[in-house]
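[Structure tokenization] protein backbone as discrete codes

[Encoding] learned vocabulary of local backbone shapes

[Begin record] amino acids and matching fold tokens:

___
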Amino acid sequence: MKTTIAYLVLVVLFAGCSKHAPVTFTVLHGDIAVVEITTNSFKGRDYYSVDFKLTDQKDSQLHTLAKHHPNDEITVVAGNIVSTRPGFAFQGPTTLQAPCRTHDDAIAVERDLKKLSQ
């Protein structure tokens, strides 16, 4: 019985210690190259997202970070837009998306992201 309890305590401690700190990648002024609103229709309903691409230099930095953290979640922060993906998902040219509920929301997000691109 004591051996089982000791084993469970070790498993819990090991599982708790194996978690990595979150990896955050911040997009600053001038780091965004392209911003556009995308509309998709499904079963008669429109869905909006604002797609944005990083500059070549910033995209390269993101890929380097992803190579060092392939199994960690990477959170990309661009203004008030937050996108989280596993590190291995950042391969090739990166297009990030900000899903929006309405077209007006998409326009507001696009405007905020374009401020970062200037």
About this structure: Strands lie at 23-27, 32-42, 45-54, 73-78, 81-86, 95-100. Residues 21-117 form one domain. Confidence is low (pLDDT under 50) at residues 2-17. The chain has one domain: 21-117.
